[in-house]
Amino acid sequence: MKKLHQYLGTLLLMFCLFFLPNNGFAQNTNTISGKVLDDSGVTVPGANVSLKETGKSTITDENGGYSFSNIEAGTYTIIATNVGYKTFEKKIAIKEGESLEVNLLLEGESQSLKEVVVTGSSAPRSKLESSVAITTMGAKAIEDRAPSSTAALLQTIPGFVVEASGGEIGNNLFARGIPSAGAYEYVQIQEDGLAVFEDGALQFANADTFYRLDETVSKMEAVRGGSASIFANNAPGGIINFISKTGQNEFMGRAKFTTSDYGMFRTDLNLSGALIKDKLFFNVGGFYRADNGVRNTGFTANKGGQIKGNITYKFDDDDYLRVNFKHLDDRNTFYLPIPLKSNNGKIEGIPGFNPNYGTLTSVNFSHLNVPQYGGGTFSADLEDGSHPVINSIGAEFKKKISEKVTFKNAFKNTNIDLNYNAIFPNGGPWTQDAYATSVQNTTASNLTYSYVDNGQKLDPNALIMRADLWHIDKKMNNFANNFSFNFDLDPVKLTAGYYYSNWKSNQYWNWNSYLVNVSDNPRLLNVKDNTTGVDHTWNGVERITWLERDAQTKGVLNDVYADAEIKATDNLTFNAGLRYNKDKYSGYRDNARFFSENLGILDNNTADDAVTTVKGNPYTYWRYDVSEWSYTGAANYKFNDNMATYARYSHGFRSPIEESFYDNAANLSKLENTEVNQIELGYKYSNSFFNVNANLFHMGLKNVAFTDILSDGSSENKFADVNNIGLEVETNARYEIVKLNFTFTVQKPEYDNFTGTNADGSTFDFNGNTARRIPKFFCNLRPEVDITKDLTAYVQFSYFDKKFTNQDNKQVLPAYKEVGAGLNYTYNNLRFAVDASNLFNEIGLTEGDPRQTTSAASDVFMARPILGRAFRFSVAINF
């Protein structure tokens, strides 16, 4: 049965192809093609071009090119639209046997509301007529932003608090004030309409670990709230959909080289064209990159790349069959909190540790080899970092069955092998006195500290701490299939579909504690008790395998959904959506014996006295069923071609996350789905100079899970309600040579029903407290100036208000700002650019514990700041 399910999508495609009408391959030779240019003569990629009378539409490629084939002789209206430009319309006539070339000129505008979007809707529709909060960005706009990671790009979206301080991967996104343990817990990252992996919040497998930006991306569409729960699972916060480039008749390519002041070598390449003119098209591309990382580890921090592509066969009437694939093999260092200090409220680095470029991840202990309970050795390589190897293949098929009915099916099969290694701080920093008394229960004078590599004694004033090497091995796979029927029943457009997905995640953990000095590129320490002769470390390892885990989580989803667009009048449109989830989750967990085993092989050494092991233990098997409805209703009123407003109510949910299943495997009765209710009021306005999208929202959440892994290996395992009211605003303005983008979010996320008892018996009451790690205000301001026709300069300013580390609101992360800037110059088909981030080396804290002290005489604490100043230089060529 499993095999049958896995090939369901393939069988559906074959069935539809078998019954294609014979005239499906008939074709006319008439073609219309050309380029879309802006008012400065530069090509515009990602623009929408359509022939009004035929219903045909396409998106311009990376060189601004478009093409229509099999066009009957006659007169047509060609229309071009794109973000930031006025709509272009022109009457054209084509004769029999003619290949007509028409270049289209777009005049600059603040941001067009006529741009067509496809994410979170049953059918393509303009922004003006949509009743969701959506942000879009084409390939050129993405390149102009010069994001250092997927998370860095998502920081530009209002309503999304994005922490990009972890490096290229493993970052966190909090949608509309929903607090969580991190990752992408309430949003879904999609690639061409299907999730990169069904659950984006698995432990140490954040969704951005499996997605990389490169030249194959045509467009990004991000929906916040709204209809997201109808078109994606576990995504009441939103959908982020990256749309890939596809081919066209003319062969085109783009190559790009990027370097940086932190040792980057990166090459990108994208090629597209036709294997059979007018019928069979291809797009293939990818990247290879190696660099040392902004924070200095002493080794190559990021190394690897990907190749991805698609082949499209076009039938008549815009029907098509597309096969796509991706192979990703990339290694990335994940950055975690570092030691800092507070000087009268100002955050600073400590002596010997650079707050902008320092990290506890060090080449000095990159290879771990430790004995194991029952024999054998466990090994891990820190230089491997977070290392996903991903292979995915899928297909998409669209067929117009009749004038009123269109069938569409898409499927994807993904296999992931994730080898994860990172350094997590765990306890301290301590003075040597504090370590002796609080950790080893002795006096400071009894202990001697020396470096493992040369035996030299440690400075008695130096701080020390634990730096844990957390190793996680995950074997993951996911098959997903989505098919739907679209009915054009004017004035109603109805979509009805069925979504199936099965996924599995097997994971093994082995965590070990190093003892190190607190400095840039720290070194391993050995500790010896002079009075007893007992060693407290083994080659710098203070605790061998202090945590081990062996577990599995599986999901099988069977969901049906329907969505209707009702055009009541020329100005008034209604939307209603419904989804029913019949999902089953299951798995097993170990019954680890924490800190209970003694290896017994290290004489006079405590490093092997408290090993955690899962060997020989029975497993607890669990099962959890989900039967849930999601629904939404909205109305959009268009005052004119420049202004509209909408109102929407939606109800969605998030099923329990992986860590909740593990923590409560023996008693799942305490688990509940997180219920999310949203009310939204939106306003949209655009003219030749100015555009604004404003969204007022209220979110009510029931049973939000908090599952952070604590320093002793346990989980918070707490639940609460959260209420948030907020305003998201996105504005764009353009006047002559100056463009301005400004986004801001103001909100008030607060806890409710959050009282209880801690593990130590103490009680807590967090009702009314501000949700952790969520600022009440944040904004982005980006002015651009066209210095000349070919030379553009920009400044990027971001501000984040203060926020709290924990639920008790006692640990404050101060407000901070970040400034970036850049220049780009275009010469014919060449583009040169220099981009800088965090120009002033701001120490902006995204998470941590700034109130924690090491002793009465020390104000050192742990927190994770944003990355230090970095410059990137690139040159790209279109051919």
Question: Could you characterize what this model shows?
Answer:
The chain is mainly beta. The protein folds into two domains: 79 residues, Immunoglobulin-like (Sandwich); 627 residues, Maltoporin, Chain A (Beta Barrel). It is 5% helix and 55% strand. The chain has seven helices and 56 strands. The strands form 13 sheets. The protein has a 22-stranded antiparallel β-barrel. Strand 20 and strand 21 form a beta hairpin. The longest helix has 11 residues. The two termini are 49 Å apart. The N terminus is likely disordered. This is TonB-dependent receptor. Belongs to the TonB-dependent receptor family. Keywords: Cell outer membrane, Ion transport, Iron, Iron transport, Membrane, Receptor, Signal, TonB box, Transmembrane, Transmembrane beta strand, Transport. It is a multi-pass membrane protein. Its main location: membrane.
